[in-house]
């Protein structure tokens, strides 16, 4: 944790005195000083959802409560901002305060967009669906074991065949499905109805 002297000051603008007391205690537990006015970071709750103009004047904002904040703050915040759930931990609250005061955006992992696909995954994702794909019964077995996350060696033991036989079937599945990875094969198998989720 950073020394208290280097931490930004925080001003609370929370409707509920109980929530305010809880957040004040959480911030104090990580060494953040709460001031009555002029704090470097303004902490708000859902009562501020319709008051965008006032938030624009605040600079750095940490909103605690509704996930709707992740859609509102990009349009109204003039500085860094954080959208945190109502049950944010002291560490999450500190990360939100530090990130917002540094001009960054802080979101919980559940609100982050999915990572971009690699070139290989993107090609596999954009393949047209083809109902004409047929797998042999053994290839279907191998695909099902891939979906379970089994290695070639474990799949071979499960099927009572050699590891090289499994590798042969895996390559045949990749070829028929037009993919180059296990994840791609499983995704494509689900898309084509060859695997159930």
Structure in words:
It is a single chain. The chain contains nine helices and six strands. It is α/β, with parallel strands linked by helices and 197 residues long. It has two domains: 4-111, Response regulator (Rossmann fold, 3-Layer(aba) Sandwich); 119-191, Arc Repressor Mutant, subunit A. The chain has a six-stranded parallel β-sheet with strand order 2-1-3-4-5-6, sandwiched between helices. Helix 7 (152-159) crosses helix 8 (163-177).
Question: In terms of topology, how is this protein built?
Answer:
Blueprint (H helix, E strand, L loop, with lengths): L9 E4 L3 H13 L4 E2 L5 E4 L7 H7 L1 E6 L3 H8 L4 E5 L4 H12 L3 E2 L12 H7 L11 H11 L4 H8 L3 H15 L4 H10 L6
Parallel strand pairs: 1-2, 1-3, 3-4, 4-5, 5-6
Number of helices: 9
Q: CATH homologous superfamily of the largest domain?
A: Response regulator
Largest sheet: 6 strands, parallel
Shape: elongated
Q: How many structurally independent domains?
A: 2
The portion of residues forming beta strands comes to: 5-15%
What's the arrangement of strands in the largest beta sheet?
A: 2-1-3-4-5-6
Distance between the termini: 43 Å
Helix percent band? 40-55%
Under CATH at level 1, the class of the largest domain stands as Alpha Beta
CATH topology-level name of the largest domain = Rossmann fold
Order of helices and strands: EHEEHEHEHEHHHHH
Number of strands: 6
CATH architecture of the largest domain: 3-Layer(aba) Sandwich
- Rg, Å, rounded: 26 Å
Instruction: Give the integer mean of the pLDDT values.
Output: 81
């Amino acid at each position: 944790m950073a020394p208290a002297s280097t931490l930004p000051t925080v001003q609370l603008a929370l409707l509920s005195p109980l929530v305010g007391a809880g957040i004040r205690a959480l911030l104090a537990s990580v060494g953040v000083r709460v001031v009555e006015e002029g704090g470097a970071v303004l902490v708000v709750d859902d009562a501020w959802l319709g008051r965008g103009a006032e938030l624009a004047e605040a600079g750095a904002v940490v909103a605690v409560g509704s996930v709707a904040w992740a859609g509102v703050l990009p349009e109204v915040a003039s500085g860094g901002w954080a959208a945190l759930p109502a049950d944010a931990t002291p560490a999450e609250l500190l990360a939100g305060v530090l990130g917002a005061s540094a001009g960054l955006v802080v979101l919980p992992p559940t609100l982050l967009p999915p990572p971009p696909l690699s070139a290989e995954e993107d090609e596999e994702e954009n393949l047209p669906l083809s109902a004409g794909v047929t797998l042999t019964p053994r290839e279907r077995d191998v695909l099902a074991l891939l979906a379970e996350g089994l290695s070639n060696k474990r799949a071979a033991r499960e099927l009572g065949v050699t590891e090289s036989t499994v590798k042969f079937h895996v390559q045949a599945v990749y070829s028929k499905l037009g993919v180059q990875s296990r994840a791609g094969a499983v995704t494509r198998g689900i898309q084509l109805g060859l695997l159930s989720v």
